[in-house]
Write a structure and sequence with these properties.
The complex is a heterodimer of chains A (131) and B (389).
Chain A: H1 18-25, E1 30-34, E2 40-41, E3 56-60, E4 64-73, E5 80-87, E6 92-97, E7 110-116, E8 124-129
Antiparallel strand pairs in A: 1-2, 1-3, 4-5, 4-7, 5-6, 7-8
Chain B: E1 8-14, H1 25-40, E2 49-51, H2 62-68, E3 74-76, H3 84-97, E4 103-110, H4 143-158, H5 162-176, H6 190-194, E5 198-200, E6 203-204, E7 214-221, H7 223-228, E8 234-244, H8 258-269, E9 278-281, H9 286-296, H10 304-308, H11 327-331, H12 339-351, E10 365-373, E11 379-388
Parallel strand pairs in B: 2-3, 2-4, 9-10
Antiparallel strand pairs in B: 1-7, 1-8, 4-7, 5-6, 8-11, 10-11
Helix pairs in contact in B: 5-9, 8-9
The chains are: A mainly beta (131), B alpha/beta (389).
Chain lengths: 131, 389
């Protein structure tokens, strides 16, 4: 089954997360890493959710990851794949799997980030099968 | 300090309606409050503590307490979604143990069915400033596909099958056939469940709970009050609550907060899963039950599929009778919040007042468990254990 285009609601951008969305507008995925404990987290915060330090920095992510889990929502006008993707850098993020056959998605599948336009906001990071 | 033996559930009432076109939400709260107080043999003027959650219209308890005409010295509006009311029973017991109140009323009501909510398949618009929303809402997380992702991962890691999940619904339907108020009274088979349409892989229509109007209420009282009343005495033995979160991106959807709330409740109660004669388990979806049973320790992690199969949850047939009212899967899921009805059916079982066809023999110890929020993102688990004194 091919994927119809679902309208993507715009994410609310705050001062705390603006660098994430500015990078997205550039086609770059960034994540927060804590220089005190060394761990990366997602979604991004000013203060590390693991150790409580405010020494967090934006780092470029490779944009490569693997499908942790997914589901194809079928009982809607435009079926879509929701998923969690585990990034090479460690954190797992909620996303959609796009640009592929809905029925082809599998746990463990290698995927790469693609940015899709939202309705009046910055583009959002989704994932497509890795070439 | 413990709540063990410090409080009793003296009154319980489930609204008979499943579609309340002609009633307001505050009216439903008032009707279930009156029902639970009448069941206990008390009146609203006896109430000195009130507990409600996000389904109660207004700022915290203010509008509903005003509407009900209550005079209170203790309130608590902890909102953990569908598990709120299980948390409230525990918090009421704590307040009673500390002398902050003696007669605590807990109410739940709502009418999502009359209001035409697409509860399971439409993403709920997030409240402003929710920190997670910008990183989730664009991807259309609905209730059903979030639980589906937990089910998909559970199948991947443990080999759980759709047929095993279907047994949860089969057991609920076996019970619901005896409940005249249940929304779905037709007995279904494993084949019926796995052949029903896929909503969001791997969950079928019959893996999902009903959307219903209605509500329920319970009254939690101090020991001396319980002894003065004529009803069978249902005593609180232990309680546990826990939040399972996204852990900064260290996402693991294979377990629930019951891994923490369960052991806390069992430790306080001084009993083990082997002592539980009846369990009310939150059943928003079949997967919710299967994972919760594992995490509460009724079977090994990953063995939930085998545990629920072959009628093991059916009263009179299996080892662990569950949701003998038909649960959220068949009976009722008022306000999209199923914690209250879980407590009420456990009280019925301990009193010996469940339907004779599903009443568990010698039901002396029972458990009720609520899940609020989503197994696919963040949720609150709450467990209470009660006995018949």
């Amino acid at each position: 089954m091919a994927q119809a285009q679902r309208k993507i609601p715009a994410p609310a951008v705050t001062p705390e997360t603006k660098p994430f969305w500015d990078a997205a507008a550039d086609g770059r995925l960034v994540i927060k890493q804590c220089t005190a404990c060394g761990q990366s987290h997602h979604y991004p915060r000013t203060i590390c959710p693991f150790c409580g330090s405010d020494a967090t920095e934006w780092r470029p992510a490779s944009g490569r990851g693997k499908v942790y889990t997914y589901s194809v929502m079928r009982r809607v006008p435009e079926p879509y794949v929701i998923a969690y993707v585990t990034l090479e850098e460690g954190p797992t993020m909620m996303t959609n799997i796009v640009d592929c056959d809905l029925d082809s998605v599998r746990i463990g599948q290698a995927v790469r980030v693609v940015f899709k336009p939202s309705e009046g906001g910055p583009p959002v990071p989704m994932f497509a099968p890795a070439p | 300090m413990t709540i063990r033996g410090k409080a009793y559930i003296a009154g319980a009432f489930e609204h008979p309606t499943r579609k309340a076109d002609d009633k307001s939400v505050p009216q439903l709260h008032a009707e279930v409050a009156r029902g639970a107080l009448e069941d206990a043999g008390l009146s609203k003027n006896d109430v000195d503590g009130y507990f409600c959650a996000g389904d109660a219209p207004g700022l915290g308890p203010l509008s509903m307490a005003d509407y009900l005409g209550l005079k209170l010295r203790h309130v608590d509006t902890t909102d953990t979604g569908g598990s709120s009311y299980v948390v409230h029973v525990a918090h009421a017991a704590e307040a009673i143990a500390l002398g902050k109140c003696k007669i605590a009323l807990i109410t739940l009501a709502g009418r999502p069915r009359s209001e035409g909510q697409a509860t399971g398949t439409a993403p709920r618009v997030p409240a402003a400033a929710m920190p997670d929303a910008p990183f989730e809402f664009p991807f259309a997380p609905a209730t059903a596909n979030m639980y589906a992702m937990a089910a998909m991962r559970h199948m991947h890691e443990f080999g759980t099958t759709s047929a095993q999940l279907a047994w949860v619904k089969v057991a609920a339907s076996q019970h619901a056939q005896h409940n005249p108020h249940a929304m779905l009274r037709e007995v279904v088979t494993v084949e019926d469940v796995v052949n029903s349409p896929i909503i969001t892989d791997p969950l079928h229509r019959l893996d999902c709970c009903v959307i219903s109007d209605g509500g329920g209420a319970v009254v939690v009282v101090a020991p001396e009050i319980a002894r003065s009343l004529k009803r069978p005495r249902v005593r609180l033995l232990g309680a546990g609550e826990a939040l399972k979160l996204q852990m900064g991106g260290k996402v693991d959807l294979t377990y629930t907060g019951a891994v923490w709330s369960g052991p806390r409740a069992f430790a306080e109660a001084g009993v083990t899963p082997a002592d539980i004669k009846y369990a009310s388990i939150y059943d928003s979806f079949t997967i919710t039950v299967l994972m919760t049973l594992e995490d509460l320790g009724f079977c090994e992690k990953g063995q939930g599929g085998k545990f629920v199969a072959d009628g093991n949850l059916i009263s009179g047939v299996g080892r662990l009778p569950f949701n003998t009212d038909g649960g959220g899967l068949c009976n009722n899921h008022p306000a999209n919040r199923g914690g209250m009805t879980k407590i009420i059916e456990a009280v019925r079982q301990l009193r010996g007042e469940a339907h004779p066809k599903v009443q568990v023999k010698n039901c002396d110890v029972a458990l009720a468990h609520g899940t609020g929020g989503s197994l696919g993102t963040r949720h609150a688990s709450a467990t209470i254990i009660m006995d018949r004194e």
